[in-house]
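Title: Prediction job returns without error message
Component: structure pipeline
Severity: low
Priority: P3
Assignee: unassigned

Description:
Job completed but the reporter wants confirmation the result is attached to the right record. Sequence as submitted:
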Amino acid sequence: MEEERQAARRPGGRSARVRAAVHQAVTDLIAERGYGNFTVGEVAARAGVAGTSVYRRWGNLEALLMDVAITWLTTQSPIPDTGSLAGDLRAYAANVARDVAGPDGPAVLRLVIALSTAGQDGLRVRDAFLAERSRQLQSMLDRARDRGEHPPDVLDVLDHILAPMYIRILFGAGPLTPDYAGTLVDRLLSHK
């Protein structure tokens, strides 16, 4: 009975709520001020938590920023399973376009870029970001291969689908529409 009351009272738990609030505060501050223009104290205040809670969980601002970037990547743009490589790539590209064009996408992409130039910690963020994205894509490509299809390499997907979308968002080089995402997939599949 006590367990049922606790589960009803704390879905996801306080820790999950604090983490979500801190992550959102970081994303909002990056969007407003850019990388490097805020402190852990400002993050904590925006999230409505004590600064000591942030330090206890992440240790420093760089570790927090790395967690935000990697978490965003791993929770956004899930790998679809439509039953075909073309369908999977189209659904994935449409999801990525929606996510990176969404309210937090540009800020997180800017964060990854800023961190990747910020010394060793930044290089770890960049490497972790690319490794996670590559792992996700490889699982989709392996599934296609298991079905007897002939998928491209992960690097081809990065070059032909993700890079153009990231450039459009980061440099304001045009909108990310479902049609544009589909065109990128068509180009990749026609070059295999």
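Comment from assignee: result matches the submitted record. The chain has ten helices and no strands.
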